[in-house]
Amino acid sequence: MENFHIKIVRLKNGEDIICFCFEDYKNNKVYLKYPKIFYMGYNYETDPPTEELVLDDWLNPQAFAYQDVFIKSDEVLFVTYSNIQFGCIYLESLLETLDEESELFDGIKETLNKYNEESTESIDSINPKSKTIHWSI
User: Fold this and answer.
1) DSSP states along 109-129
2) What residues have CB less than 8 Å from 36, skipping those under 6 apart?
3) Disulfide: which of 27, 119, 127, 129 matches 84 by Cβ 3.0-4.6 Å?
4) Rounded mean pLDDT of the chain?
5) How far out from the chain centre does Cα 37 lie?
6) Least confident of 28-32, 86-90, 122-126
7) pLDDT in tens, 33-46
8) CA–CA gap between residue 93 and residue 109 (Å, rounded)
9) Could you tell me the pTM of the whole model?
10) By C-alpha distance, which of 55, 42, 40 is closest to 90?
11) What are the angstrom distances between the C-alpha of 24 and each of 31, 58, 97, 122?
């Protein structure tokens, strides 16, 4: 999985997917591992209802058993890297669905720990006394 990175894939049909992704434009394919669709949904259990991020399996995991899935690159509108915080949310949701005995569990847990370290380093590097605002697009 060393060539795969956590990325967000926007399909031409409007679906937004977060997954481990590898783009192979030479063969006109985008490879997806553990794809999850995400969207904003409402939680009606709170008063007032709140909007929250929902992550669901994009494909039936029992049918595909989390195998590599590929789609034609012409079905993709764009691919971009996920930020660290969203990457952590994605990895945590993967850990919830995987069995601890799974061979994937340890690798994903290790990746999550790396992401958490990077997240802490990036937060520590912010200077709260600075009055300059930095925007990243």
Assistant:
1) HHHHHHHHHHHHHHHHT--TT
2) 17, 18, 19, 55, 56, 57, 58, 90, 93, 94
3) 119
4) 80
5) 9
6) 122-126
7) 889 999 998 889 88
8) 11
9) 0.73
10) 55
11) 8, 21, 28, 31
* 3-state SS, residue 76: strand
Q: Which two tokens stand for residue 32?
A: 């997806």
Quickly count: other Cβ atoms within 10 Å of residue 84's Cβ.
Answer: 18
Tokens of 12: 């031409």
Structure tokens at 40: 């904003």
DSSP secondary structure code for residue 82 in this structure: P
| Residue type at 71 in one-letter notation | I
Other beta carbons less than 10 A from residue 38's beta carbon: 19
Report angle CA 8, 10, 37 to the nearest 5 degrees. Answer: 70
User: What's the CA gap between 106 and 24, in Å, rounded?
Assistant: 27
